[in-house]
Amino acid sequence: MKVAKIVMYLSLFLSAPGFAFGQARVRESKQLLKLLEAKKGALMGQINNLPYRGDQQAAIKGYFENIEELNDTLSGDWRLAKRFNEVFEGLDLPTSCPKLWLDQETYAQLLKNCTKNRFFLCSEKVRKYENLRENFKKQLTDENRSRFEKTKGCSLQEVQ
Amino acid sequence: MKSIVTVLSVVLGFNAFAGDPQRITLSDVSKKVSESNFSVYQTAIRVYQAKEAVKAARGNLLPHLNLWDIAGAAADIYTGGGTGGAGVVGLISDIVPFLIPANWFRVQEVKLLYQADQLGYQALWANELMSAKALYMHIVLDETLRQNVLENIEEVSKIHKIVQMRELLGGAPQGSAREIEIRLLALQEDKRSMEVLLQEEKAQLSFAMGMPAQTNLELSTVDLPDLATLEALNYDDFEYRAVDSSPEINQYDYFIAASDYVRRETMYSFLGASSMSRGAGGGVFDNIPVTPGLGFGTGPSMRIVSAQKDILKLQKEGAEEVIKRQLKLLVNNYNLDLENYRNLKKRTDLAKAALDQLFERLSLGENFDMLTLVEASRNHLSAAISFYSVQYRFLLNEDKLGRLIFHGDYSNLPNAQKQIEEGRKP
Q: Given A57, A117, A118, which is nearest B241 (Cβ)?
């Protein structure tokens, strides 16, 4: 009986750090999504303030840079990517995606607003949006990727 | 596939040596400058050195074997410690270099300086590309102008013959043909000068593209934009991106960040100084006196580092101002060319109409002063030259603006590392 108790405590003691790290990664994953949502919000708050000057340009760049950073973070840490996918599984994509991603119409408007004569005045990352989303998709599990592609508002096909 | 490439390059190389013209386009210039320009390739190698320096600095944190030091320490112990055991203590830097804080700071510095070197590479590549593209456009413009001069020579020769005939028949005052011949000779001189200039420019371009001196270039024309459809630019629209994407400015952020580590390195120098190199880009901190051990020099050394940081901050501000000024100037010139375009187009059309009308009157047998015809021909040439010059100047300004905000060709920075690994040599 005593041995069983010791084994139980020992296993609890040994698994505690793993559990704590796992929880930390879940929290980090949620924070990453929250940050992306905040950046999207900042972008949407500035998108119609024409012509684009410092504040607008910073908000636009911030959103696309954040997607790039998110992809880099996930691709560089498979444990975090695993937890991120778990968090992503729990998301209601039809309501979450519009908070995180730009729809085709808004993106087209952004591209137009950023263009003057033959110049593109916003960050070059804006024009790589399709690639950024493609890279994000690569960080997802097959199941999440399939959900992401099928959900309206997440689908890559909507962006030209 | 490789053999096809080899055969093709041999054939192309042979053609270049044989002096056969090699046709290139503006997009070839971007590709060749990125791959084969001597300065760009040299800087790519420097970036490679900086990257290897990071690995070297990391590796130097691990123990390494210095046989002579070990032998010296052993002899020291054996002979009763003539140096008071200093030889053994000196071994620390070989056996446990990671115990010396300065080495850790040096690793961080080398990493930051590598980032700065990459930005330096970007700036140099963009400048070389811009110069080569400008040269290409100048050559195409000069080719166009040469063509115009040739047409004008033909026109004036025709007039010269007519005037000679009229002079003989008494229909034109004596000396008229001579006046026109002077003009004709001047035009021929212009033509010859332009041919020499074109040869020089082509030689410079082939050098910028890393091609052999014997290469005979033939340039494809450039599509000129319809300036009438373009809008005037606003400086404020460009300012953020020009400053944000400038490697010249961003490079300073890395230098400034590295200076913090240099300061810490100086502060902890009493635990030993680092003998690691800061790499190719570390020259900016070469004048900082860091001596091992705790002494009265540490304080002033730290103040020197702080002052160096202030200098770097000032230099960053200065670079930002230079970029802004260049931008303002370019936007003004761009708008000026847009405004002048309509006038110049009208001027060229009117000059052509006036010349055509005079030729028509001549063909109908009307008698008028032949010098008027020569003058009209000269006006036409001058208007055409101004018109083409403005169009190409516009293209140049547009490209310079592209360089300033890293747009178009300038957004496709070649991967220096890849370039070295693939062994692309000029």
A: A57
Tens-place pLDDT, residues A126-158 = 999 999 999 999 999 999 999 998 888 787 554
User: Which of B104, B109, B101, B108 has its CA nearest to residue B268?
Assistant: B101
Query: Which range of residues forms the domain containing residue B163?
Result: 22-62+99-250+320-421
Answer whether the bond into residue A17 is a cis peptide, omega within 30°. no
pLDDT tens-digit readout, A40-55? 999 999 999 999 999 9
Q: Do B240 and A116 touch (CB under 8 A)?
A: no
* Contact: A119, B407; criterion CB under 8 Å: yes
The answer, yes or no, to whether residue B29 has pLDDT greater than 80, is: yes
Asked whether residue B262 is domain-assigned, the answer is no
Lowest mean pLDDT among A18-22, A23-27, A45-49, B287-291: A18-22
Comparison of pLDDT for B228 and A74, the residue scoring more? A74
Residues of chain B whose beta carbon is less than 8 angstroms from a beta carbon of chain A are 225, 230-231, 233-234, 236-241, 244-245, 398, 401-402, 405-407, 411
Q: Is the CB of A116 less than 8 angstroms away from the CB of B237?
A: yes
φ/ψ (deg, to 5) at B284? -65, -20
Residue B364 is classified by DSSP as: T
Q: What is the largest CA-CA distance in chain A?
A: 81
Stated as kind and residue range, the H or E segment containing B67 is helix B67-78
Residue B421: predicted pLDDT: 62
Residue B90 lies in a domain: no
Q: Tell me, what DSSP letter sits at residue A90? A: T
CB contact under 8 A, A61 and B244: yes
Q: Is the pLDDT of residue A86 over 90?
A: yes
| Sign of the torsion angle spanned by Cα atoms B333, B339, B343, B345 | positive
Instruction: Enter the ipTM.
Output: 0.79
Q: Are B123 and B247 in contact (CB under 8 A)?
A: yes
In this structure, which amino acid lies at residue B319?
A: A
CATH number, domain of B228, equals 1.20.1600.10
Mean pLDDT over all residues of chain A?
A: 88
Domain count, chain B: 1
Q: Is residue B177 assigned to a domain?
A: yes
Q: CA of B236: which chain A residue's CA is closest?
A: A53
The alpha carbon of A121 is separated from its chain's Cα centroid by a whole number of angstroms, namely: 24
Which of A112, A118, A123, A126 to mutate: most B Cβ within 10 Å?
A: A118
Asked if residue A90 has pLDDT above 60, the reply is: yes
**Distance between CA A144 and CA B54 in Å, rounded?**
39
- Residue B50 placed within a domain: yes
